[in-house]
Write a structure and sequence with these properties.
It comes from Taishania pollutisoli. A hairpin with a 2-residue loop joins strand 4 and strand 5. By secondary structure, this protein is an alpha/beta fold. It has one domain: Hypothetical Protein Aq_1857, Chain: A, CATH 2.60.300. It has a 5-stranded mixed β-sheet with strand order 3-2-5-4-8. The mean pLDDT is 92.
């Protein structure tokens, strides 16, 4: 199976640090407007995905949810979660007080990867 989601070592290290303080985590990437389009990190249950939003995978046990419309746009792309120094548009994200912001790098799946994609989970 081809994973839809991976993370850099820096992102994994930050997730582990956040988990040690906040417990289990989750991510949500909105489709824009008020929330921006960068992934935001919350305590698990701190954000409620909408009906038909899509979970594309997990990183360090944290579910990664995407806005349903954004997923339609990016469904043929691999997501790599990364972290940068600075303040992103997601001011409510748990990494913000640390002067960090999560970011996604996208790349299109190859033809072979598309034939063996891992399934997604839809929010009921």
């Amino acid at each position: 199976m081809t994973n839809r989601l991976d993370a850099t070592e820096q992102a994994i290290a930050l997730i582990r640090e956040l988990k040690s303080v906040h417990g289990e985590l989750m991510f949500y990437q909105a489709g824009g407007c008020c929330e921006g389009t960068q992934p935001q990190c919350f305590e698990k249950g701190g954000f409620f995905p909408r009906m038909n939003d899509v979970m594309i995978g997990t990183i360090e046990g944290a579910e990664f949810w995407i806005d349903r419309d954004l997923f339609e746009y990016w469904k043929f792309s691999h997501f790599t979660l990364d972290v940068l120094d600075g303040f992103g548009p997601g001011g409510f994200s748990l990494e913000t007080p640390l002067g960090k912001t999560f970011k996604i790098h996208y790349r299109l799946f190859t033809e072979n990867e598309l034939m063996d994609l891992s399934p997604v989970k839809l929010m009921d």
